[in-house]
């Protein structure tokens, strides 16, 4: 039977991870994969996570199955973190998933069941797994303009013009904060305008929240989502705990749907559990329970928030230091946009030949479209990368 299979090529992020692993050079620098790194270039387990894990080892008495939707305490704690009191709990359906990717997949499956002819609108550019998952699930997709490469900022007018075309029942995928790959985020006013537009057109916002706490702050990063949730009757959410809890490999995430009323919530809650059953039955529990333990304990929560804030500020510092270093090495402020963007990623905008030269001649790995993980820079690599970029463009 296997002779019918055609090899699937890995996406550009996974491809680059493999190339980096295969590169034998000592001083190689990975700015491709989206993981946060400290000053020593490591991605340590957060202290709050270690403490929660110790607590679990000591107190957990069973690893028997939980429910199909996962641990209720985790879902409730995450509802608070994401939505605050923007909508009544009785309207929110939620189920645990394997990471944020699993959440995006389950939400798309829910959309396909509810409205198979819906078009899912994605930003141009976006995280490559968005179009890939939409295609795998078999939904239609269209792109809306998002980023102005000339200015390194949001293409506000283009975005609003394109989204004025969305149909009733169409789904508009938005990045909750720290847009991947551009780092160009929506301002509060943009969220407000979008909420009005989408409510008017009867379309459903789908907010992918993978970096809460990495942008402007834990609460501020949820501001746009909460604005939309308060104004649009149906909202889809995919959330990941991979980055802000550093739980990458533990696969903690959740799919959430805000419904029109409590009756619809009951139906959607059942569908999310049923979809979990069809795809993997029970969601991973360990990471979710770590998150619940942290969010449910005042001391652990304070430790976690302070660690998260340290990470966020380090990313901001990297951005400023890297933009300064590039100003010196290129004698221009061409890369000044790096300072204003948010989160782990920016598109460096130097073209494919320069990206290839960085990799081949300097052992510096960026995604082929120029996406760069700013959180992967350290005090010692910033001058090296800035010199190499100046030499490569
Ligand atoms: C926009 C976006 N959504 C979702 C995810 C999902 O992450 P994970 O599946 O590792 O939780 C990521 C991770 O890179 C992302 O960038």
From TrEMBL:
<dbReference type="InterPro" id="IPR004839">
    <property type="entry name" value="Aminotransferase_I/II_large"/>
</dbReference>
<keyword id="KW-0808">Transferase</keyword>
<comment type="similarity">
    <text>Belongs to the class-I pyridoxal-phosphate-dependent aminotransferase family.</text>
</comment>
<dbReference type="InterPro" id="IPR015424">
    <property type="entry name" value="PyrdxlP-dep_Trfase"/>
</dbReference>
<keyword id="KW-0032">Aminotransferase</keyword>
<dbReference type="InterPro" id="IPR004838">
    <property type="entry name" value="NHTrfase_class1_PyrdxlP-BS"/>
</dbReference>
<dbReference type="InterPro" id="IPR015422">
    <property type="entry name" value="PyrdxlP-dep_Trfase_small"/>
</dbReference>
<dbReference type="Pfam" id="PF00155">
    <property type="entry name" value="Aminotran_1_2"/>
</dbReference>
<protein>
    <recommendedName>
        <fullName>Aminotransferase</fullName>
        <ecNumber>2.6.1.-</ecNumber>
    </recommendedName>
</protein>
<feature type="domain" description="Aminotransferase class I/classII large">
    <location>
        <begin position="28"/>
        <end position="389"/>
    </location>
</feature>
<dbReference type="InterPro" id="IPR000796">
    <property type="entry name" value="Asp_trans"/>
</dbReference>
<keyword id="KW-0663">Pyridoxal phosphate</keyword>
<dbReference type="InterPro" id="IPR015421">
    <property type="entry name" value="PyrdxlP-dep_Trfase_major"/>
</dbReference>
<comment type="subunit">
    <text>Homodimer.</text>
</comment>
């Amino acid at each position: 039977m296997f002779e019918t299979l055609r090899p699937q090529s890995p996406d550009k992020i996974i491809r680059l991870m493999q190339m980096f692993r295969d590169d034998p050079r000592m001083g190689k620098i990975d700015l491709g994969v989206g993981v946060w790194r400290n000053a020593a270039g490591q991605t340590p387990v957060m202290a709050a996570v270690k403490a929660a894990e110790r607590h679990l080892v000591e107190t957990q008495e069973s690893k028997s199955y939980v429910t199909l939707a996962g641990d209720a305490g985790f879902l409730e704690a995450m509802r608070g973190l994401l939505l605050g009191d923007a909508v009544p709990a009785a309207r929110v359906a939620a189920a645990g998933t394997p990471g944020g990717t699993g959440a995006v997949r389950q939400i798309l499956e829910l959309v396909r069941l509810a409205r198979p002819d819906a078009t899912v609108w994605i930003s141009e550019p976006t995280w490559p797994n968005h179009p890939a998952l939409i295609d795998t699930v078999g939904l239609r997709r269209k792109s809306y303009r998002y980023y102005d490469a000339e200015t390194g900022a949001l293409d506000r007018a283009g975005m609003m013009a394109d989204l004025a075309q969305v149909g009733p029942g169409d789904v508009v995928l938005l990045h909750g904060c720290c847009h991947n790959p551009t780092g160009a985020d929506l301002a509060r006013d943009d969220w407000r305008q979008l909420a009005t537009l989408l409510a008017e057109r009867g379309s459903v916002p789908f907010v992918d929240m993978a970096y809460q706490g990495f942008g402007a702050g834990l609460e501020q990063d949820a501001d746009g989502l909460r604005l939309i949730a308060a104004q649009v009757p149906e909202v889809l959410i995919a959330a990941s705990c991979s980055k802000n809890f550093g739980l990458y490999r533990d696969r903690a995430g959740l799919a959430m749907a805000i419904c029109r009323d409590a009756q619809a919530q009951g139906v959607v809650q059942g569908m999310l559990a049923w979809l979990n059953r069809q795809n993997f039955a029970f969601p991973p529990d360990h990471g979710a329970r770590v998150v619940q333990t942290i969010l449910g304990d005042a001391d652990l929560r304070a430790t976690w928030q302070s660690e998260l804030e340290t990470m966020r500020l380090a990313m901001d510092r990297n951005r400023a230091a890297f933009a300064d270093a590039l100003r010196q090495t290129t004698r221009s402020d061409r890369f000044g946009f790096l300072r204003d963007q948010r989160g782990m990623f920016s598109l460096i905008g130097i073209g494919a030949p320069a990206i290839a030269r960085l990799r081949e001649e300097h052992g510096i790995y960026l995604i082929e479209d120029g996406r760069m993980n700013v959180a992967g820079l350290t005090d010692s690599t910033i001058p090296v990368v800035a010199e190499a970029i100046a030499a490569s463009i």
